[in-house]
Amino acid sequence: MPELPEVETTRLGITPVLENKKITDVKVYNASLRWPVPAELAHCIKNHRINKISRRSKYLLFEFDHGTMLLHLGMSGSLRLKNISDPVEPYEHVEFVVDNWHSLRLRDPRRFGAVLWTSDSVCEHALLKHLGPEPLEKVFSSDYLFDISRKRKASIKDFLMNSHIVSGLGNIYVNESLFVAGIRPTRPAGKITRAECHRLTSAVKKILKKSIKAGGTTLRDFSGSGGEPGYFSQKLLVYGREHEGCPQCGTTIKRIIQGQRSSFYCKKCQK
Fold first, then answer.
1. Cα separation of 147 and 141, whole Å?
2. How far apart are CA 33 and CA 13, in angstroms?
């Protein structure tokens, strides 16, 4: 599924075209997403200007004077910028017409995405208010991770994927970060040392920034805002490389299942 770098890459791609532009029409071709598209959505945003497009975790936030539209790409969603004259393709469920000629379309084959509206403070929205700090913000520091992980028995892999601890970290980037930090994914979070927390938070930030710069991770269902694929997957160190050699020592990469998700690690380099 699209992870934080993919969502941020999408935000960076659509912002120059859509920010400070007026929504002139909204077309809902299929309202049955993860949650139904609000029937009042068109009334709420039509003829209103997008002041800003921001991101919280994996949610894109379209900010208007009178409220915020939340958009989540789900497991297979992508946003495409097109001309309104382009025919609607299969799985394009919602279309936003901007200044009468640009068309932003949500394509979501599995329909796990979401388009929601709130006129209240978006920070207090039920989907956002309990999220942990953003991994690229200063508050996600080695001190924070060390303090919050004390006496926690959950594996460090599962701990990092808890959105109440840190928001937006997905499976690919947690695997990669643990490898760079030299920490085995099965280690109890409460046993991670302060020095290891420093290595781990640094690895998370470095890998996310590198991925955003590269355009996200190429997954089967992910494309950039213009339809082009991301490229970071060509540089993955351990994720998806079961039975291949570790890029550092040559030891065969091992795959296990944690929390119904695959974990990849090198038993020699990750302690």
1. 10
2. 23
Contact (Cβ atoms closer than 8 angstroms) between residue 110 and residue 219: no
Any idea what DSSP says for residue 41? Answer: H
Output the pTM of the full model: 0.90
Which residue matches tokens 């355009």? 215
Fold that domain 142-235 belongs to in CATH: Helicase, Ruva Protein; domain 3 (1.10.8)
Fold of domain 4-124: N-terminal domain of MutM-like DNA repair proteins (3.20.190)
Domain ranges of the chain: 4-124, 142-235
Q: Is 99 left (phi over 0), alpha (psi -120 to 50) or beta?
A: left
Q: What is the pLDDT along the chain (271 residues), one digit of tens a residue?
A: 678 988 999 999 899 999 999 999 999 999 999 999 999 999 999 999 999 999 999 999 999 999 999 999 998 899 999 999 999 999 999 999 998 788 999 999 999 999 999 999 999 999 999 999 999 999 999 999 999 999 999 999 999 999 999 999 999 999 999 999 999 999 999 999 999 999 999 999 999 999 888 876 544 444 555 555 454 555 789 999 999 999 999 999 999 999 899 999 999 999 9
Cα–Cα distance, 209 to 190 (Å, whole number): 27
* Closest to 116 (Cα-Cα) out of 187, 45, 197: 45
Residues annotated as catalytic (active site), given as ranges:
2-3, 58, 261
